[in-house]
Amino acid sequence: VYIVLSLEIKADAHVWGYVGENIKLKCTFKSTSSITDKLTIDWTYRPPSSSRTESIFHYQSFQYPTTVGTFRDRISWVGDVYKGDASISIINPTIKDNGTFSCAVKNPPDVYHNIPGTELTVTERGFGTMLSSVALLSILVFIPSAVVGVLLLVRMGRKSAGLKKRSKPGSKKSSIEVSADTDQEKDDCMAKLCVCCAECLDSDYEETY
Fold first, then answer.
1. Using CA atoms, how far apart are residues 2 and 90, in angstroms rounded to an integer?
2. DSSP for the chain?
3. Residue 24 contacts residue 87 (beta carbons within 8 Å)
4. Among the four 11, 15, 20, 171, which has the fewest Cβ within 10 Å?
5. Of the candidates 125, 77, 71, which has an alpha carbon nearest to the alpha carbon of residue 93?
6. Which ranges carry the Ig-like domain (predicted)?
7. Residue 11's beta-bridge partner residues?
């Protein structure tokens, strides 16, 4: 007898996570019948290289996480049956949680369906991951700063070369160049004044302590 699946369930085939960081096990379903209080959701767990399964979560109008075993008080409901979501979350996962998780949904009269399995792999967040984060931060922060610094140095070098060229013996300065030199002298004076003020502030700070 050929049975047509009126209830379709989807789940991620593989999920990776880190020790101590909550992991979401996503499960969605589509039913041809309206959602009623008869709808049930069951999550089971099977350890690696084992045929033994254990129930870790049950839903029927309310959430019933397991109260025994290694997943006791560590399963949280994050789904919404009216949106076709039957997902759960594992709190404070460990490497011992590695294995296969299965999501089963029944919405009478829709009871025939596939039961997808999700292979979970939990690892330690090692030095390599931290190094990658540091490298990404460097790319986003330090490299743009370095580019700006190089551009400023190039601009200052061109400006200095232009001043040397205008100051050669025998060259007559125009009124515009004279004005530019005057502005440069004013800028130099302001820079020296700022340096003096900074030295005074530093001196006062040291005397206080």
1. 37
2. -----SEEEEE-SEEEEETTS-EEE-EEEEESSPP-TT-EEEEEEE-TT----EEEEEEESEEEE-SSSTTTT-EEE--BGGGTB--EEESS--GGG-EEEEEEEEBTTB--B---EEEEEEE---HHHHHHHHHHHIIIIIHHHHHHHHHHHHHHHHHHHHHHHHTSTTPPPPHHHHHHHHHHHHHHHHHHHHHHHHHHHHHHHHHH-
3. yes
4. 171
5. 71
6. 20-123
7. 27
133-186, pLDDT tens digit by residue? 555 565 667 677 777 777 777 777 776 766 666 555 555 555 544 454 555 555
Q: Which of 104, 110, 112, 119 is nearest to 43 (CA)?
A: 104
Tokens 């025939």 locate to: 112
